[in-house]
Amino acid sequence: MNDFEGDRTIFIAAFTAYVAYLNILVFIEYNKNLILEARAEANFERKKARDRLINDLNKLEDSRDVIRMRPHAFQRLCYILRGTGRLRDNQYSCVEEQVAKFLHVLSHNVRNRTLRFFFGRSLGTISSHFHNVLRALISLEDRFLVQPMDDCPIPNEILMKEGKIFPYFEKCIGAIDGTHMRVKIFGDDVRKYRSRKQFPTQNILVACTFDLKFTYVLAGWEGSAHDSRILEDALTRADKLKIPQGKYYLADAGYMLTPSFLTPYRGMRYHLKEYTNHAPENPMELFNLRHSSLRNAVERCIGVLKKRFPIIASGTEPHYNEDTMSDVFIACCIIHNFLMGVDPDEELIDEVDNELMHSEEEDDTPPTTRNNEYSTDFSIMELDGLFDEHDRSNEKMFDGVEHGEKQSEGGYFSWPRAMDTLLLEILREQKIKGLKDDRNFQGEAYRVAIDAINKQFKCNITKEKIVNRLKTLKDIMHLALDALKKSGISWNDTTKKIEAGPETWNELIKAKPKMKRIRDKEIPNLELLRDIYEKDRATGTKARTAKERLRQWEETNTIDEVDQLQAENVVILENLDRCCGDKEIWLRCCGVQQNNKQ
């Protein structure tokens, strides 16, 4: 009887546990369905919100406030991007949604978490869509970033100004300039990117036509690099800036005057604001006025670009790294060119023109009436013969001083070689002590150098003279380092000279006339200069154009594909060697290997 009661108790306990287990399963299943239903309902609501937003962008005329273009332009852009094959609709998102998110980031400089709120997507999905659209846009470079051809006609903007611009600038094809974009940099590289704006930037070279369309963009150079150095790099790259035979670009005084780049007269009034109340007084000033009014196109073009896309104009630190920001700038230029053809936004252009005009005004004095007859007389009598004289004038004013620095009162102060050596040795010691911030020395370092030089050489050196001398020495160092990167050039440590053959020197000087300053000249303190300044020197290793960026992506994808195939024993390196790097050939090899394996 006791055994029966014991078995009965065990049975009841087991049955009770089983019933409780079943109840738990039912509860979990019931709540699981509720959770899934709630999640499905939330997803459905988010999809409705996204569809409503995309529908509004495709219909509402005020879509410019959100994505900087009207519905017809947005639809056209999505159609073009679909045609690249890099963007596709899928069961979760359409091309319109991906492009809208990308344009919203460019137009408002917002973070991904802001897009997550509006579009109801995860941060990973938003980031993936952003970079997919970015690559698809840069792949359109051959369609929207087109350089002038050899047989390019005279621009209408020049033909329409006969007597003032035409025929004097009839061979001009556009204008070039550099612009800065803030970037996020960490570590020792900050000093290379720190520009006169006191925060890290990229210095980007752009060329544009007079109808405000970009033709060439070189992004990625450090902000400390000089405009002329970036231009020299652009002229020697694989995807270089092309200038048709007999044509030229307009450039400001920061560039060297060459047959391909026409700069203004130095030492003369140039900017339009300087002629507001005072007409040109001589043919050279009239030339500068005409030059400035025509070159103003590149300033307008950059102004419209940055006004349209605040992500590249913001003074705050960007959300993306410097490589992505370089790609973003190129993509913005491509979208800008696309919109100038289908949706130019004249109100935005007028707003930029007004800002440029007001930014040039020195005071509120109303402009006086210009003596148009006076200016026209100059254009008829003098402008046609100014170009040769202009060439000689600029070359003369551009020549540097190698062994002296001009004093503010006039004349030159002589810098003996021993004084240069003492100055640089002291500054190197001060750098080791930590008295060099980024690219400049602290005041204490200059004070030590001034005291030592004045004591040893019995002179009256000032900080201004030291700073000016260091500029000259750094210019010489930059020339020497640029020359040593070329083939056929070497450094002789005994003579302290750069050695090269006559033909090599002639080619160097032809490409960069300032190279004549170091030809057959001793550079006794090059090692000291490199110790102090070489790490601050911009290198341009991350600079690239749209074509070069696409090529880099293709090479990266190829390497990743090879690694994957090799890991799966689908292809071996010997096959790749026989393919000589041809992607299509090695892919066929991969197919043969895979078929044999199967």
Quick take:
The protein is an alpha+beta fold and 598 residues long.
Features:
598 residues, alpha+beta, 4 domains, 5-stranded mixed sheet, two-stranded antiparallel sheet, 23 helices, 11 strands, disordered C terminus
Description:
There is one protein chain. This protein has 598 residues and is of the alpha+beta class. It folds into four domains: 2-139, no CATH class; 156-396, no CATH class; 399-536, no CATH class; 546-597, no CATH class. Helix content is 56%, strand content 8%. It is built from 23 helices and eleven strands. It has helices at 2-57, 64-67, 71-84, 95-108, 112-119, 123-138, 141-144, 156-159, 190-193, 227-234, 283-308, 322-342, 346-360, 372-381, 386-398, 417-432, 443-457, 463-484, 502-511, 526-533, 546-567, 573-579, 583-597; strands spanning 172-182, 201-208, 214-222, 248-250, 261-262, 404-406, 412-414, 436-437, 440-441, 490-492, 497-499. The strands form four sheets. Strands 3-2-1-4-5 form a five-stranded mixed sheet, with helices on both faces. The protein has a two-stranded antiparallel ribbon with strand order 6-7. Strand 6 and strand 7 form a beta hairpin. Helix 4 packs across helix 6, helix 11 crosses helix 13 and helix 16 (417-432) packs parallel to helix 20. The chain is globular, with a radius of gyration of 32 Å. The N and C termini lie far apart (72 Å). The relative contact order is 0.08.
